[in-house]
Amino acid sequence: MWTAGYFSFEQYVERAERFEGPTLAAARGWANALQVFVHLGSFVEVDDSGRLHNTSAVIAPDGTVVATYRKIHLFGYGSRESELLTPGDGLGVGPVAGPATGITTCYDLRFPELFRSLVDEGAEQVVVCAAWPAARLEHWRLFTAVRAVEQQVNMIACNAVGEQQGVALGGHSRVVAPTGEVLVEAGADEGFTHADVDTGLPRRFRAEFPALADRRWPTAPNTPMKEYA
């Protein structure tokens, strides 16, 4: 929610925009100019009914939107997000530099069923953007690692830094492999962080250690078990 600042709840209505608005247009320009995939996470979207959403998108180098996501799990603890916004009702999955990539946002990290649903849709890596407070930094580290290991995905996690409305944010953006290895972790200050990600590792690791294939709980009653490559 960087266009308003996550904790600047009084700015949500003023900063809200249509999906095809100036923020998406700017991100398309960045993706095209730099010839990279851009994860636009996230901004305040207003839909045709006037409802507000915490919305993210992934843009390809040619400017195409390959995935969108409206945050499903809205935060209520010391936050007005659940009061002001409407939760999404669909998954965000799209191809990013090859592999199917799932999109999640902040508080979603606490809900493993969402990540398993993304894997059921073919995701081999997951991106999460966040305004995760410093007070719960160890939870951030724990959940980003656990989701990578339990879902056997590359986890690319970006967290805000600094202070918003008196809340210190934790930073420590990180990339975690499905093996649990932390490929890179940033600090608590603004900066640039990068990692070389082996996009083929999730599939190889799933074949070597087929925990997903051993699953014995279907996604819904009378639904066949998912087969994982």
Question: What descriptive keywords fit this protein?
Answer:
229 residues; alpha+beta; Nitrilase/N-carbamoyl-D-aminoacid amidohydrolase; three-stranded antiparallel sheet; globular
Strand order of the largest sheet: 4-5-6-7-10-11
Shape: globular
User: What value does the average pLDDT take?
Assistant: 94
Number of strands: 11
What is the succession of H and E elements? HHEEEHEEHEHEEEEEH
* CATH architecture tag: 4-Layer Sandwich
User: Which parts are unreliable, with pLDDT below 50 for 5 consecutive residues or more?
Assistant: none
Q: For this structure, what is the CATH homologous superfamily? A: Carbon-nitrogen hydrolase
CATH class (first level) name: Alpha Beta
Strand percentage, roughly?
Answer: 15-25%
CATH topology: Nitrilase/N-carbamoyl-D-aminoacid amidohydrolase
Which class do the helix and strand fractions yield?
Answer: alpha+beta
Total number of domains: 1
Number of helices: 6
The residue fraction in helices comes out at: 10-25%
Organism: Nocardioides luteus
Protein name: Hydrolase
Keywords: Hydrolase
Family: Belongs to the carbon-nitrogen hydrolase superfamily. NIT1/NIT2 family.
